[in-house]
Write a structure and sequence with these properties.
- The protein is of the alpha/beta class.
- It folds into two domains: 242 residues, ATPase, nucleotide binding domain (Nucleotidyltransferase, domain 5), CATH 3.30.420.40; 215 residues, Nucleotidyltransferase, domain 5.
- Helices cover 37% and strands 21% of the residues.
- The strands form six sheets. Strands 15-16-14-13-19-20-21 form a seven-stranded mixed beta sheet, with helices on both faces.
- The longest helix is centred in the C-terminal third of the chain and has 25 residues.
Length: 500
């Protein structure tokens, strides 16, 4: 009897649900969108009820599309989600306010107060916290929505809430708590003196204290969902994690030296180390956040393919044959390496790593009367490529070698840009058959720990298949290096001005 596994990828713009067989083939995949509200500058909110409505809408499609035998043989379901997307809830899991999205920046003051403590837990998250994370957001709710804070049962993350809707159990993930909640396994978990120091002494009452590892059972599907949609009553809901981090399973980057890069509007760079590194300019190292006895290292570029969208809109580049980017695809071939002296800094929304500089600015440098929009476009693509090289350089200069890149996301559809990134970094780029690494990563996790495969590595080896490899042209790599160093020098020369 064939076994099947469900992955639910709950993202910023919508939810994608896939059902995989044991070989990683998605026999069903659907997406449903939702809206984000921006009630004030720096605020970003969503209504959690919209998430659940979207999930049920796709469950309806599963019930009408897949026959009963397949639905009855979905052994397990795993969810990944944005983080931290914080929701105060009552005892029945009903939201008491809209969710504060991960990008919501209203808790900057709380973030800074936490960072000013210099507490040892910050050594395990890149020396500082972020307004994107749970503890600053929970503190903001405590201070500014006391009416809600005093009556709420818990403040939960999007993943916790989704799992509760599916199985009726409250559990938090080791992935989310380690990366976003200041939970440190090697120190025994949450540190009471840290929470007392920041004024969150009642954290045990407001946060979910149950912390499960990725792949551990959270519960079984609610009977009413099983009956309504024809799922097996024994279908397990297993613990997932943060969307980008769960993509590591879908990319099969579960060994040191393999760098996973989610190439979308922003870039996220993820890898594992079997030793705790003492590194600057990263997020982490995170203890056991993805795999036991492994340290997660994270880098990121806030502005990546989002700069292509910015360029297309502001330079009024029309569509071609229905493709918004059709008129841009061949442009890099018309302009030489180095864009005839035009250099762009890709810090249009600040720099995430390695500088961790929220005040960094985007720059277009070196223009003369002979340059055209095509030079600027090539320089934009080069700048994002240099940003990835800078992150890899930061890893390698501190003792972590990167052997290869495995990529997913929209940029993988642009072979010219992939080749540029490979040439600039000098690293091969692997693209798998299915680039929906979040959904597939959840399916890999659902299939592991004895549900079909013994462990994550064997599941990924059987379920993830490379489609093509982009090899670097090392002659081009050498030609790019003076321009890369110019990119580095430009930031160092301008950063004081950027901070004024």
């Amino acid at each position: 009897m064939e076994a099947y596994f469900m992955g639910i990828d709950t993202g910023t713009q919508g939810v994608r649900i896939g059902i995989s067989d044991t070989r990683g083939k998605l026999i069903f995949e659907k997406e449903q969108k939702w809206e984000t509200e921006f009630p004030k500058v720096g605020w970003a909110e969503q209504n959690p009820l919209n998430w659940w409505e979207a999930v049920n809408g796709i469950f309806e499609q599963i019930a009408h599309t897949l026959d009963s035998e397949i639905r009855q043989n979905i052994r397990a379901c795993c969810v990944c989600a944005t983080s931290t997307t914080a929701i105060p809830v009552d005892r029945e899991g009903r939201p008491l306010m809209n969710a504060m999205m991960w990008m919501d920046a209203r808790s900057r003051k709380e973030m800074q107060e936490i960072n000013d403590t210099g507490h040892p837990v910050l050594d395990y998250c890149g020396k500082e916290t972020s307004f994107e994370w749970m503890i600053p957001k929970a503190l903001w709710i405590k201070r500014h929505r006391k009416d809600i804070y005093d009556v709420c049962y818990r403040i939960v993350d999007q993943l916790d809430w989704m799992n509760y809707q599916l199985c009726g159990e409250w559990s938090s993930s080791i992935c989310n708590t380690t990366c976003k909640w200041n939970y440190v396994s090697s120190m025994g978990g949450y540190q009471r003196d840290f929470f007392e120091q920041i004024g969150f002494e009642d954290y045990e009452e407001k946060l979910t204290m149950r912390v499960d590892k990725i792949g551990d059972p959270v519960g079984t599907i609610r009977p009413e969902l099983s009956e309504k949609y024809g799922f097996s009553r024994e279908m397990q809901i297993v613990q997932g994690g943060i969307d980008a981090h769960m993509a590591m399973f879908g990319l099969d980057v579960l060994k040191p030296g393999k760098l996973g890069v989610i190439m979308g509007t922003s870039f996220v760079h993820l890898c594992l180390s079997d030793e705790k590194p003492d590194m600057k300019g990263i997020w982490g190292p995170y203890d056991g956040a993805v795999l036991d006895n492994m340290w997660l290292l994270e880098g990121g570029q806030i502005s990546a393919s989002g700069l292509v969208n910015w360029f297309r809109h502001n330079f009024h580049i029309p569509e071609k044959d229905g493709n918004p980017y059709g008129n841009l695809l061949g442009i890099p071939d018309e302009i030489p390496i180095g864009a005839d002296g035009v250099t762009v800094l890709d810090f249009f929304q600040g720099n995430r790593t390695p500088y961790k500089d929220a005040m960094a600015k985007g720059v277009i440098f070196g223009l003369n009367i002979k340059h055209t929009w095509k030079h600027i476009y090539r320089a934009v693509l080069e700048s994002v490529s240099y940003g990835t090289q800078n992150i890899i350089r930061n890893f390698e200069e501190q003792g972590y070698p990167v052997e290869s890149i495995t990529a997913c996301g929209g940029v993988t559809k642009d072979r010219r840009w992939l080749q540029m990134i490979s040439d600039v970094t000098g690293k091969p780029i692997i693209v798998n058959e299915n680039i929906q690494a979040g959904v597939l990563g959840c399916c890999v996790v659902a299939a592991s720990k004895g549900r079909f495969y013994d462990d994550f590595q064997s599941a990924a080896a059987h379920m993830i298949k490379p489609k093509f490899i982009v090899e670097p042209d090392m002659q081009n790599h050498e030609e790019y290096q003076p321009y890369f160093h110019k990119y580095l020098e430009l930031y160092e020369s301008l950063k004081n001005l950027m901070h004024q």
